[in-house]
């Protein structure tokens, strides 16, 4: 059985797998055909950048932590481990499946949460839409896979190994 898949840089892919990141932020809404379906979350091959992890850690330790959209305590614990051992997260692997909800414009999501903006990275121009991710099913162990830009199809038998 294949799944639509999307590649993310680490640590964001693992934050989803750990249930700490309820929204993926993109400049475009996810295709309607994928709403209500399980998508594969792929950790791209790009190595973890400690500066990005440190930036998230700092944000989560301020009064404005809610603007990250992350679940604070478990995200802090995961990010502190990753900051100490950046090579500990899987790369080029499917880390979980997630049920994709109907995308919401960031300005609407922010208004619902009473915040000026919700974004978990410095890439503000890429946070126009929040994609709700629910019913997280972590892969243990992660499944090796080659990713691609945008949505692509992941078939475990074809790409594992």
What does this structure look like?
There is one protein chain. With 161 residues, the protein is α+β, with helices and mostly antiparallel strands. It has one domain. It is 26% helix and 29% strand. The protein contains 5 helices and 7 strands; from the N terminus they run βαββααββαββα. Strands 1, 2, 3, 4, 5, 6 and 7 form a 7-stranded mixed beta sheet that branches. α2 runs antiparallel to α3. The mean pLDDT is 93.
Task: Tag the structure with descriptive keywords.
globular, 161 residues, 7 strands, 29% strand, 5 helices, alpha+beta, single chain, 7-stranded mixed beta sheet
Task: Give the topology, please.
Elements: E1 3-8, H1 12-17, E2 23-26, E3 38-43, H2 50-60, H3 72-84, E4 93-100, E5 104-105, H4 106-113, E6 129-144, E7 151-154, H5 156-159
Parallel strand pairs: 1-3
Antiparallel strand pairs: 1-7, 2-6, 3-4, 4-6, 5-6
Helix pairs in contact: 2-3
């Amino acid at each position: 059985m294949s799944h639509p898949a999307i590649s993310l840089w680490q640590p964001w892919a693992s934050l989803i797998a750990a249930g700490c990141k309820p929204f993926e932020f993109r400049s475009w809404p996810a295709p309607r055909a994928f709403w209500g379906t399980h998508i594969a979350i792929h950790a791209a091959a790009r190595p973890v950048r400690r500066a990005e992890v440190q930036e998230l850690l700092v944000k989560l330790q301020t009064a404005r932590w809610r603007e990250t959209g992350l679940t604070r305590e478990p995200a802090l614990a995961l990010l502190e481990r990753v900051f100490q051992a950046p090579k500990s997260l899987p790369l080029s692997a499917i880390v979980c499946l997630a049920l994709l909800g109907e995308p919401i414009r960031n300005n609407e999501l922010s208004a619902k949460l009473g915040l000026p903006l919700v974004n978990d990275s410095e890439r503000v121009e890429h946070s126009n839409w929040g994609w709700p991710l629910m019913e997280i099913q972590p892969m243990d162990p992660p499944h090796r896979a080659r990713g691609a830009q945008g949505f692509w199809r992941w078939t475990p038998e074809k790409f594992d190994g």
